[in-house]
Design a protein that fits this description.
The chain is an all-alpha fold and about 290 residues long. It contains 9 helices and no strands.
């Protein structure tokens, strides 16, 4: 066998071995991904179970959760978030009304812009926009705060003193978002309707009284309740994801940054997935 033929055979054998190793590596990576995903899901459900267990103990008066901590978190997640929620909601109301006017004026039905803004905001958009804002604002804050405590070994100190971090750190934040996001959702709905009214009055020559009359005609209790329910569930999702990302952060500055980013991304994804599930359920039961 000549040298070129031998070299060619060696190259083919090495190529086959390399392909086999790459193939095995790909399978190994897929298996590791599946195992890690299963572990993360089990850990997440365990964390959620611990939170609900803490709520049950709090109702029985057996937790270290302090009322002052809950009120402080409500203040941080509620009144201080109103300006950004109002600004975004007002602009969303303007955009919906402007785009709706461009289409509805083709049929001479500009007055139904009020119904378009009212139904879309009260049923789903108000809650979704509020959830996205709070995921970026408050969910990230929770992950950064708890991650910093973990890096400074403050959580280890709490556990050494026999204090549950779930009861002392997580539960006040979960209760705060659960209370504040439904209220912020209602505020977002009202402000967005005002934004739509500005477009209707300035561009469509619709009177304020006629706009509000049409709005009140089309707002139903079902739509309003669905929007508030979305906000209530978003509070649970964002708070639990933000706190869990902080609890799982590594004790480095880079780890805290990754935990914060993960909290924002998963919080927004959680809101979208929750919206999709609720939409299917409400369509199925015809609400």
């Amino acid at each position: 066998m000549c040298a070129e033929t031998k070299l060619h055979c060696d190259m083919r054998e090495n190529s086959c071995v390399l392909e086999t190793k790459n193939r095995i590596g790909l399978v190994d990576r897929a298996g590791d991904l599946a195992i890690n995903t299963a572990k993360d899901l089990r850990s997440a459900f365990g964390f959620i179970g611990d939170v609900f267990s803490s709520i049950w103990r709090m109702l029985r008066g057996n937790t270290v959760t302090r009322r002052i901590d809950i009120m402080r978190e409500i203040d941080n997640a509620g009144p201080r978030a109103i300006p950004i929620v109002c600004l975004i909601s007002f602009m969303i109301g303007l955009i919906i009304a402007f785009v709706g006017n461009m289409q509805l004026k083709l049929f001479g039905a500009e007055i139904y812009v009020a119904a378009l803004v009212a139904i879309s905001m009260t049923r789903i958009l108000g809650a979704v926009m509020t959830g996205i804002i709070m995921a970026g604002r408050t969910g990230a804050s929770y992950a950064a705060e708890i991650g910093s405590m973990r890096a400074n070994e403050e959580i280890d100190a709490l556990q050494t003193m026999g204090i549950s971090p779930i009861e002392f750190l997580v539960l006040p934040r979960v209760l705060a978002l659960t209370i504040t996001i439904p209220i912020l959702t209602i505020i977002a709905d009202i402000v967005a309707i005002f934004g739509g009214m500005c477009v209707a009055v300035t561009l469509m020559n619709v009177s304020v009284a006629e706009y509000w009359r049409t709005t009140l005609e089309w707002i139903t209790f079902n739509n309003f309740a669905v929007g508030v329910l979305h906000g209530w569930l978003f509070g649970w999702v964002i708070a639990i994801i933000g706190c869990r990302c902080g609890m799982r952060a590594t004790k480095t500055a880079d780890g805290i940054g990754r935990a914060t980013t993960r909290a924002v991304v998963l919080g927004i994804v959680g809101c979208v997935v929750t919206t999709a599930i609720l939409t299917l359920i409400f369509n199925w039961i015809d609400i």
